[in-house]
Structures are given as structure tokens and as C-alpha cells.
Design goal:
Layout (H helix, E strand, L loop, with lengths): L2 H15 L8 H18 L9 H10 L15 H15 L4 H13 L11 H12 L3 H14 L25 H5 L11 H24 L6 H4 L4
Helix pairs in contact: 1-3, 2-3, 2-6, 3-5, 3-6, 4-5, 5-6, 6-9, 7-9
């Protein structure tokens, strides 16, 4: 089976079996695969060994088979649940036992909340690729889609950028950018992922600066300091 044919099969399975929401749909999976493939091409130019695109593609399309809301008590286990669910699917698609195990690790280790250390090039790449989709123009849109789904307000109306209060992304959507998203560039495992992430994070900072102007306030320095 060619890589293109495999992609078609994985997309079909993902559409049928994943519990979709506006921020975790087939378009998200396509973007994650595009990000992962872009990073893989850069990795393959290095002397680190060849990236297994079959395993990487499996991770890209099956990593959200089980997608729990951000405020769900078992959120940190979702990637492991997805890895378990992926095993029989991959076997049916002709993946060998060692490929299935490798893909399961890629899927389990992609999650920020799971805290599982990537132990393969493919796992590093998939984690970076998924995190890239939380940044940039798409990341801005996805932040507020997720917030809307769980009825989390946009920002604190009295202090939108936490100039004089503690940050709390369980209460305010924008706070999540400071506590997690704008820190992602420094946590990328691959050089290519880091480069793309920095560019996308700078776009988000520009958005915040414009947002502050429209709110007739200023963006505190501690936001820009995250990208230094």
C-alpha cells in the first residue's frame, strides 16, 4: 500500500471512529500530518536515522481517537486510551506488530497532559506537530473553539492580561496562552518544530498587542518576555 493510499485509509477510520469536536476534527488531523511530514523531511536530512513515515502517519491520524474535554478528570489518560484503541485498527490495515507498538508509543507520548517522554524520532515529531496546531492563526481560532465548548470566558473583564492578578487558565481562556501556549516553542524536540513554533508564537503575541489596543489597555511586559 502506498503512503497516499494509507493516508486515505487512516482518514476514513479517523472520521468513523473519533469523537469529533470543532477543534479536534479531520482538518486538525490533516494539519498535524502536514506539520509532521514537514518536520520529518527536515529530520531525514540529518544524520539521526530515517523517520518511519508509516508509523508517523498512523500517529497523526489516530492520536485523537479518544478525545476528552480539557476539564475532564481523565484528560491526562486520553492519549493512552487512543493508543489502545489504535492497535486493532492498525493491525487490520496491515501494520506489523512492531509497527503497531511504535505507533502506540507515538500516540501515547504526543499529549502535553500525559507527561510521557518521547522515546523515538517519530514520537518527538508527532508531539511537535500536534503542538504546532495550537499555535499561530489556527491556534488562535482553536483556543476559542475549545473555550466555547466548555463555556470558559474569553478573559477577565477587570484585568484581561493579568497585570495585577494571578494567571488562571481554568477561569480565563487568554491566560492559557501565557501558562502554556507561548511557552511551547522552548519545549519543542526538533529544530524545525522550534523554528516554526517561534514564528507562530510571534503572530499570537502580535494578536495580543492588537487586542490590548482594542480594549483600550496595554499588554504587560511579562507576555512579551515569554518569547525572548
Amino acid at each position: 500500500m502506498s503512503l497516499k493510499q494509507l493516508q486515505s485509509q487512516l482518514r476514513r477510520v479517523a472520521k468513523e471512529q473519533m469523537a469529533q469536536d470543532p477543534a479536534h476534527d479531520i482538518a486538525h488531523l490533516d494539519r498535524v500530518w502536514a506539520n509532521a511530514h514537514r518536520i520529518a523531511r527536515a529530520e531525514n536530512k540529518k544524520a539521526r536515522g530515517r523517520v518511519d513515515l508509516r508509523v508517523l502517519m498512523a500517529g497523526a491520524y489516530l492520536h485523537d481517537l479518544v478525545n476528552l474535554p480539557k476539564d475532564h478528570p481523565d484528560r491526562a489518560k486520553a492519549s493512552t486510551f487512543s493508543a489502545d484503541k489504535a492497535a486493532p485498527i492498525l493491525a487490520d490495515l496491515g501494520y506489523a506488530a512492531d509497527e503497531v507498538a511504535a505507533a502506540q508509543h507515538v500516540i501515547a507520548a504526543h499529549s502535553f497532559s500525559a507527561g510521557i517522554t518521547p522515546k523515538s524520532f517519530e514520537a518527538e515529531i508527532l508531539r511537535d506537530a500536534d503542538r504546532l496546531d495550537a499555535l499561530g492563526a489556527v491556534g488562535i481560532a482553536r483556543t476559542f473553539m475549545v473555550a466555547g465548548a466548555i463555556n470558559r470566558p474569553f478573559c477577565d473583564p477587570d484585568d484581561p492580561f493579568a497585570a495585577n492578578r494571578a494567571l488562571d487558565d481554568q477561569l480565563w481562556s487568554i491566560d492559557h496562552w501565557h501558562l502554556k501556549l507561548l511557552k511551547l516553542p522552548g519545549d519543542m524536540a526538533t529544530e524545525k518544530g522550534r523554528k516554526i513554533a517561534r514564528k507562530r508564537a510571534r503572530l499570537m503575541l502580535s494578536y495580543l498587542q492588537q487586542l490590548a489596543k482594542e480594549m483600550d489597555t496595554e499588554l504587560p511586559d511579562h507576555w512579551a518576555d515569554l518569547l525572548k
